[in-house]
Design goal:
The complex is a heterodimer of chains A (366) and B (407).
Chain A: E1 2-6, H1 7-18, E2 32-37, E3 41-47, E4 51-58, E5 61-63, E6 65-70, H2 71-80, E7 86-93, E8 96-101, E9 104-109, E10 128-131, H3 132-143, E11 156-163, E12 165-171, E13 175-182, E14 188-197, H4 198-204, E15 211-216, E16 220-225, E17 228-233, E18 252-257, H5 258-269, E19 278-284, E20 287-294, E21 298-305, E22 313-318, H6 319-326, E23 333-338, E24 345-349, E25 355-361, E26 364-365
Antiparallel strand pairs in A: 1-5, 1-7, 2-3, 2-6, 3-4, 4-17, 7-8, 8-9, 10-15, 11-12, 11-14, 12-13, 13-25, 15-16, 16-17, 18-23, 19-20, 19-22, 20-21, 23-24, 24-25
Helix pairs in contact in A: 1-2, 5-6
Chain B: E1 6-11, H1 14-22, E2 31-33, E3 45-46, H2 48-51, H3 61-67, E4 72-74, H4 78-93, E5 99-103, E6 106-110, H5 121-136, E7 140-145, H6 148-158, E8 163-165, H7 171-176, H8 188-196, H9 202-206, H10 210-217, H11 220-228, E9 244-255, H12 258-279, E10 282-292, E11 297-308, H13 311-326, E12 333-344, E13 347-348, H14 355-373, H15 381-384, E14 392-393, E15 397-398
Helix pairs in contact in B: 4-5, 10-11, 12-13
The chains are: A alpha+beta (366), B alpha+beta (407).
């Protein structure tokens, strides 16, 4: 294997691969990336067996070949080289690769291609194409409610494609984020769904382009943007029945200026307890009082005026959970639909854009 | 910073003294509280008469019996002690709000903020001592110093029934001749190690370089170094917030049968759940402890994203942890315990388990029934298995052999 490549070109790809390669050292080879030089292009592959990234760079290859090398080291080496220079990779023998640029020379231990796990191939025959900015926006709206815990089916967001509609849902058992949107020119007869891991969604947020291509097989989801293909193992398990927990007709409706309620919650939560971040909302006619207390610090009160004629009651929340929602949206006003102090609350931006968004939050017993 | 004024006050041979008060015929006799001589477990308290024979708290009962066969062994009654302890607390809290109840019979008072109220400290401290002794009819020892460690060490010197003050400038002379095990955190193991290095008194520690202490005691090394010089900045911890709640028991005889062990565990979880409910707390960490018949102790804990309070939830986790420990066991067990820590006062309800609210209502209904008719009025079938082993009263449930009367 022997080829030369411009530093910047390979560096951006290596940067993306850093997010993929396994850092926990369960299988040493997963800390490596695979460099596969074919005819006129060099493929770079990283995987942790759950999420994989395959990317290629077009360049002249003097001698085809392949090897795997520590993802961290190759990234550090390339980063250290001066910009604008060419970097040459050549395999000295099956155990050693030489990376050189100008007077700089590195000889790095490597492993054979055969030691590296096979990464599934996508065909993108279904021709499903999503606008990337819209898709990223949808990811942002569900990303924060994904948890990392024993119930592995909650470690990702459920993605559903049906007709001309795409939906993303995430939940941690206390709150649920739901977002949906129409996609032009998409027409899927048979519903497609799968749980996409948090890591995959995080990597997808880094992609930039107009469109993203999507495909899947029995156990993997594939996303393609330009030269990069992300391969994500579908998280197995049954996603909770989210439809059943979205409240349909909560009678007590409050509309706030997003900025006002966000600021008030931020202020009051300064004196909530570190661990639970609990605050109380007291609903009265045309106003809401906010309250928090911490036996070790003191207490805080605030008030937000808003038109309200529903029931008077008190309800507790984890303030961080509300702020997560409020800081994700941009709309001027937000809408809280409540039933009582023990039932789920529906929150949504008051002015919807093309993307529908619902956030369901359970109250806190304080 | 101005010198603080910390008072440490400790009731002498608390449990034994209470027993004497309740039964004056015990006066002047060697009393060991904690269990009967043939029983298992350890002595919680020994009266000064019993201490003459070498009996001390923490000593296995059988050993105490060998040393002091004529001693009077009592099982003790936690409820009575707790009520004395509450009175103790009440009396002390009249003098200052800055107080830490270190245990049932031991408290720290910080009089620094009340300087203006008490023109003479030594007079005030004498008065506190007299008031406690008059009202409780129990003898106490008192230590006064600029911080917790010196106050506590002063109390140790004052025992029984005396009062010692470490005056400014006298800290080093007070400390230097004390044995190293007087410092908290230096147990018999550390003592043996230090003994090999010819370090027996606190002053011997002064010569040791920091690194050596670090090697010997790890992170505690620096703390021990400071404490050996009588330096201690720890504030008093007000008793308001509990850090953990635990329930444990030593069995009447070692148990190997899984079902019976689980019945004990369930009963302890039930008790623990009740305590959490009373404190209005939820727990983020559940820990199970077992002690094998060879006295080896093992614990296993689980961190929970969603804090728990209901018996059902606690038992489910405790059972899993217990079975992990008990898996393939080749020895029988002598003790099992369960502990809740990382306590919080609130939790977010669950979206997908609508029954969590029902469970909570069930829990509070059970609680109300028990408040009215006694703990034993409602028990799970699993707990009922203990009927064959322990005596039972409706008010108190099963009378376990508690390992520690302070719990």
């Amino acid at each position: 294997m022997r080829f030369s490549i411009k530093k910047e070109n390979i560096f951006t790809e290596l940067q993306l691969l850093q997010g993929i390669v396994e850092k926990r050292n369960t299988m040493p080879v997963l800390a490596h990336i695979l460099i596969d030089a074919g005819k006129d292009r060099v493929e770079l592959i990283g995987t942790d067996l759950e999420v994989g990234l395959k990317t290629y760079i077009e360049t002249k290859v003097e001698e085809p070949g392949a090897a795997t090398i520590s993802g961290k080291k190759i990234y550090e080496i390339i980063r250290s080289l001066p910009d604008g220079k060419n970097v040459t990779f050549s395999l000295i023998n099956e155990k050693m690769i030489e990376i050189s640029s100008g007077a700089s020379q590195f000889k790095v231990l490597c492993k054979a291609k055969d030691d590296y796990p096979q990464v599934p191939e996508a065909r993108f025959e279904k021709n499903i194409i999503l606008p990337l900015d819209k898709y990223t926006e949808m990811i942002n709206r569900v990303y924060f409610a994904i948890t990392q815990e024993q119930r592995y089916y909650l470690n990702g967001a459920l993605m559903i494609l049906k007709g001309d509609q795409i939906e993303l849902v995430s939940t941690d058992g206390h709150r649920l984020a739901y977002t949906s949107s129409k996609i032009e020119n998409m027409d899927i007869h048979e519903e497609i769904n799968g749980i996409v891991s948090k890591k995959t969604l995080g990597e997808l947020r880094k992609f930039e382009d107009k469109e993203i291509k999507f495909d899947l097989d029995e156990s993997n989801l594939f996303f393609n943007v330009k030269n990069r293909t992300l391969i994500s193992r579908i998280i197995e398990g049954k996603f909770p029945n989210y439809n059943a927990v979205i409240p349909k007709d909560n009678p007590n409706i409050l509309i706030f200026s997003r900025e006002e309620i966000t600021d008030a919650i931020r202020r009051v939560s300064l004196l909530s307890t570190e661990r639970s971040k609990g605050i109380k909302l007291k609903l009265e006619k045309d106003k809401v009082e906010l309250f928090s207390s911490n036996p070790e610090l003191g207490e805080a009160r605030d008030q937000v005026e808003t038109e309200y004629s529903g029931n008077k009651f008190e309800i507790g929340f984890n303030s961080q959970y509300i702020l997560d929602f409020l800081t994700t949206i941009q709309s001027e006003n937000v809408r809280f639909e409540m039933k009582d102090s023990n039932s789920a609350v529906l929150m949504a931006p008051e002015e919807e854009n093309e993307i529908e968004y619902k956030y369901i939050l359970m109250p806190m017993k304080l | 910073m101005r010198r603080r004024c910390i008072v440490h006050i400790d009731i002498d041979a608390f449990f034994a003294s209470v027993e004497k008060l309740l039964d004056p015929s015990l006066e002047g006799k060697a009393i060991i509280v904690g269990g009967l001589p043939h029983e298992r477990g350890v002595a919680s308290t020994a009266s000064y008469e019993a201490r003459k024979y070498g009996v001390h708290s923490g000593m296995p009962l059988q050993k105490a019996y060998q040393l002091c066969p004529n001693g009077i062994f009592l099982r003790g009654n936690h409820r009575v002690y707790a009520s004395f302890s509450r009175n103790f607390h009440r009396i002390l809290s009249r003098y200052t709000p800055d107080m830490e109840m270190a245990s049932l019979d031991e408290a720290y008072l910080d009089l620094s903020r009340c300087r203006a109220l008490y023109p003479s400290f030594s007079q005030t401290v004498t008065q506190i001592k007299q008031t406690v002794e008059e009202k409780l009819k129990l003898s106490v020892s008192v230590g006064v110093g600029p911080n917790k460690i010196l106050a506590k060490l002063a109390t140790n010197r004052a025992k029984p029934g005396g009062m010692v003050e470490v005056k400014p400038g006298c800290e080093e002379s007070f400390l230097k001749e004390l044995p190293i095990e007087a410092l908290p955190g230096i147990g018999s193991k550390a003592r043996a190690e230090l003994d090999m290095l010819n370090i027996r008194k606190i002053k011997d520690l002064w010569g040791l370089p920091r690194e050596a202490l670090r090697t010997l005691f790890g992170l505690r090394g620096e703390e021990i170094r400071l404490q050996s010089h009588g330096i201690d900045d720890r504030p008093l911890e007000s008793s308001g917030e509990q850090k953990s709640i635990s329930r444990e028991t030593t069995f009447l005889k070692d148990i190997w049968e899984r079902r019976l062990l689980l019945a004990h565990l369930a009963y302890l979880c039930d008790r623990l759940s009740l305590a959490l409910r009373k404190e209005r707390c939820f727990s983020h960490i559940i820990e199970v402890k077992v002690r094998w018949s060879d006295f080896k102790t093992e614990v296993r804990r689980r961190l929970l994203v969603n804090p728990v309070q209901e018996m059902d939830d606690i038992y489910r986790i405790a059972r899993e942890l217990f079975l992990e420990l008990f898996q393939g066991a080749r020895l029988s067990l002598r003790l099992v315990g369960v502990k809740a820590s990382d306590l919080v006062r609130s939790r977010t309800l669950s979206l997908f388990e609508p029954h969590s609210l029902h469970k909570e209502r069930l829990g509070s209904a059970v609680f109300e029934v028990r408040e009215k008719y006694g703990f034993g009025a409602l028990l799970t079938a699993r707990e009922k298995m203990l009927e064959d082993v322990y005596s039972f009263t409706k008010e108190r449930g099963f009378i376990l052999k508690t390992a520690s009367l302070t719990k």
